[in-house]
Amino acid sequence: xxxxxxxxxxxxxxxxxxxxxxxxxxxxxxxxxxxxxxxxxxxxxxxxxxxxxxxxxxxxxxxxxxxxxxxxxxxxxxxxxxxxxxxxxxxxxxxxxxxxxxxxxxxxxxxxxxxxxxxxxxxxxxxxxxxxxxxxxxxxxxxxxxxxxxxxxxxxxxxxxxxxxxxxxxxxxxxxxxxxxxxxxxxxxxx
Length: 191
Prior knowledge:
The protein contains 6 helices and 6 strands, in the order αβββαβαβααβα. It is of the alpha/beta class. The chain is globular.
């Protein structure tokens, strides 16, 4: 997400881009075309274009069409959103110009793993900003069983994404400790 969508992560990404630009970095932000919370593309973004590129306050913003989850937010829609944006952003990383580093605030697991793999293949240092934990959040919401195949698969995906990351950003010391223990990541790689 990215403004005009009104989500914490959207505001945070915009503020990070502004900060990186103020420090002299060339910044490209890759996001979806706004469709939240309604699940419908906002009127000013309805065009026939798959990619839209804008220049905003010194950085480039690239928006792409992706799966729109709508108000229901069903499991399958969330998986499709995660998978499709992961594939689109991963392909962009694979086939676009070279980046000095990639800082990503992806949906956990599938999207993060695809981006981390693409960055690793191209030799970009990949930094994974973790705000959500799967499978843990899905378990606490009663969506999956802690002993299920889904649990182990989601945890494995996130472990690999963490292992392929040069560094991991977290929001708290508690989250840092949890990632270190559950994803087997040395604490010195978690920023």
